[in-house]
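Provenance

Sequences were taken from public entries as deposited. Structures were produced by running a predictor on each sequence independently, with no templates supplied. The record for Glycoside hydrolase family 65 protein from Candidatus Thermofonsia Clade 1 bacterium is shown for reference.
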Amino acid sequence: MISPVDQRTWLVSESPFNPFKLHHTETIFTVGNGFMGVRGTFEEGYSGDLATTLAHGIFNHAEGDLVPDIVNLPNPLPVQVLVDGEAFHMTTGKVLGFRRTLDLKRAALTREVLWRTSKGVVVKLTFERFASLTNEHLLVQRVRVRALLGSPQITIRSSVDANVTNLGVQHLADLHTSVSGAEILVTARTNQSNYGIAVCAAHSLSIESAVQSEAERVSYTFALPQENEVGLTKISAIYTTRQGDQPAHMAQEATRAALKKGYETLFAAHCAAWEQYWHTSDVQIEGDELAQRAVRFTTYHVLIAAPRHDERVSIGAKTLSGLGYKGHVFWDTELFMLPMLTVTQPKLARNLLMYRYHNLQGARNKARANGYEGAMFPWESTDTGEETTPQWSHPQPDGTRIRIWTGDNEQHISTDIAYAVLQYWQWTGDDEFFVKHGAEIVLDTAVFWGSRAEYNAERDRYELSMQIGPDEYHENVNNSAFTNSMVRWHLQQALAARNWLLTHHREAGEALLARLNITEERCAKWSDIAAKIYIPRDPETGVLEQFDGFFQLERLDLTHWQPRVTNMDWILGHERAQRTMVIKQADIVMLMALLGDQFGSPEVQQSNWDFYYPIVDHGSSLSPSTHAWVAARLGLLEDAYKLFMYAANIDLEDLKGNVRDGIHAAACGGVWQAVAFGFVGLSLDERGELQIKPNLPPHWRSVTLRAYHRGQLKTIRLTAEN
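Predicted structure for Glycoside hydrolase family 65 protein:
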């Protein structure tokens, strides 16, 4: 029996049915397991719904598209129930009751509907689904029908919908559907990348009833006496040629084996596996049930997206919950999602870092193409590791195109990835990973920066021109304080990593340094850059100037621009926003979060906060959580809590108005950081030891979380009293 508190903090429910919120609820009710993500569309289908089934690593560059897109796979969900020949649909007949619930603890979605037909028969329909955590290729469904008034004839039809696109763009070719007995098999291939895809669905009914095999579906018809219930179990398996050269055979074998186990056995194993993940990743908050549920919701969405068994894929900005950003991987993964996994699920964090390692060649290709050395990671990447940011937009209504500069000049991503590698190494003590893989990332991206930094002989300093920092409202700026500061930090860390390798793993270190051509001369240049790189700053206040000329921009009082949900760059227009002192998201504040006390004294940190907080638009969903983290560290608890709750509810309440495109994954990871690194004050000191500097919201009675530190799982519990 679920306790009332658990009901309020582990369950996300929808009641009554609201057809105007289809796209929002489809996203937040996504189920997944690190291999697949299935949006929360309804089994019977509705006009305008965005039925989407995604699997990590399956991208395709369709003719006419600017860049590759993650591929919407054949939809395994469709099940149609007919009562005395009348098709169940929540827009016909009469819905007497509706409740849909996502159980975060068990990663399972349930819908219960009381429905009266036009002839007065009343049935209760229960739809259940989960993406198995014990066999990541399986989507398991159960549909139960109970006759409450009347003894109707029931027909259940099941299919796999192969008529799917990415919002009208066709990525699949050679589609073929076959039905044999109670089994449906759909095969296809992507029309450019040539991935083979198979979706197999097998069925069993809880009573004896002949299955009818039709062209593209199976069906069962039977009489259902009043107060009786019948259930259909549907198990679908998804395989691609990324797993083997015979995906159809693998999918058929998996569904047949799973069907023999049955729904209850599969679900019990799935729940047991999830219990292990929640044991280490759950954050327990006493005294704030709204915050508790929101933190579990955001944690859930990171966990269902993190690949368990594949180190050649990563998490896109919208996870596997929608088609936003075409499934591309950004800095969101390394700086917002990875920290939670590094501390609570280090094996999953390692997988994500290995994606970057395996794609180093793509980063080297980009550096060479731009005239640099080393590894210059792409701003957006997919399965190949090559740069996949479009250079131009689609034509605007007037026929013009907008130049997209992020792929060229948002270069801080190379240091963001190095930061994540070093953070993982420091928390886990995984020397094997660092020696074999991580050090190469850190060092070769440092090689890139060594070739990228521009020496100003007149002023005897190094500079970086044509940059885009985290604040994307201001493009192609010179001397981004964020980028320049992180490059200085990066080069210092690279030199320390080199020395550590030569001290502790000399043979492997010398081989790596020779392969990357990291000579004494190159290291001397890194030291010189780190010592002389220009960081624009007001010498009197200690406030960093976000970039050259930022302090001369037009200032707006954003308090006069409330309430609004539209971003300021849309309101002002692109050109005006460039000339205005309004920033998209945490930029200098992001630097404060990443560098901690290395940023400066508490007084300097406060001065920078006081300057930049009033001018941030929070035009990106990842901004509020970063501000919450820093505000908590500064003891600004009222602001910290307000920003934290905004970040935690961005998706649950659709605060940005665009959840239809998918979950804001960076915001989800950022919420955990706001709690762990902000309110709890969890960090590592200079010796790599755990330290805690808590600043809890005053109404929180306690916070409990777990953290892996150098292989040991530690439980941290803070109470209001201590």
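The first strand starts at residue 11 and ends at 14.
The mean pLDDT is 97.
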